[in-house]
Amino acid sequence: MNRTPFKPRTLGLIAAAVLALLALGLFVNRTPTPDPATPAVTGTAGTAKPSLTVAVIEAKSGMLPIKLAANGSVAAWQEASIGAETSGLRVAELHASVGDQVKKGQLLASFAAESVQADVALARAAVAEAQANAQEALANGDRARAIQGTGAISAQQINQYLTQEQTAQARVASAKAQLDSQLLRLKQTRLLAPDSGIISSRSATVGSVVAAGTEMFRLIRQGRLEWRGEVTSAELGRLSTGTGVVVTAPGGAQVKGRVRTLAPTVDATSRNGLVYVDLISPLAGNKPMANAFKPGMYARGEFELGSSTALSVPQTAVVVRDGFSYVYRVGPDNRVTQLKVQTGRIVGEQIEIQSGVKPEDKLVASGGSFLSDGDLVRVVDAALAPSAPAQAASK
Q1: Which residue of 34, 61, 111, 167 sits 20 to 30 Å from the alpha carbon of 248, by its own alpha carbon?
Q2: What pLDDT sits at residue 158?
Q3: CATH classification for the domain delimited by 52-62+309-394, as one of 2.40.50.140, 2.40.420.20, 2.170.190.11, 3.40.50.620
């Protein structure tokens, strides 16, 4: 059997390949021995790094006010319709405009009074004539009574004189009544304010001839406004006369109020009842009520129903995600746990926690929106804790 001898060059290549494979295997299987003097690597490959520096708080127990919110419209307490009391007179001058504050008895408009003055003069003359005729009839009646029973004149004629005397006195009374009527018309040529208040509308124009009963002005009596809040039939029973209210205008101005009365009926369609609230005075720092609140304005009110004990935390501690409210509790290992909570009343910077936490829980005071469940945090004093946005920017 013939064997093919390997050439020396081929044998050299094979030997070199075997030595290379042996060297590679030794390099891969070699495990380096760590040096005790070398520090451990921190970060993703070593010890965990805190996600945020936070301050912790505890939910505190205290008295929080109980409030009932409602919406409604602002309206005048009472409006007075002011119009002409006599017809056929021309408006000579207007003395008040929309927005004017007037007092009771103040002149609002005056009518041309020439024709009425002429009628007054005619009525005075009629009174004088009737009084003269009455004096003559009285003298005839006195004479008839003096000779009555003597037979000088018949009884029929005596009765006639006495009847004429009574008729003349009646005509005097009638003439005086007509004079009083004309004097009243003369007085009505001056249109006066029936009460103090604010002019809310004016429909009269100079030169127009108005009929009796035509509205010329509309007056908000005494400048008083009221808020008519709409509450459900279930909530209506929680309110009573005298309950305090804080009403907020669309512009943010607030005014104090007090429930004057409750509607005796509930709307059959909406199932809401009206609560009539007298607006009393603006809160400190707000604009005057007449400037901030106008009739017809829609406003929001909160009825003050007392107070009750509740747990509360700062609003910054609550994170809202996907329509739910959460807080973050810091554990002994400085890792946070996300807790779902039920919130309630908001008073200033505090928000009520109805369920989900205990008074002894350590909660993240702010910056919870930058955390996830299980994150490691560094806890510091509240005065030393930097703001969460600044920390997030530095990460």
Answers
A1: 61
A2: 82
A3: 2.40.420.20
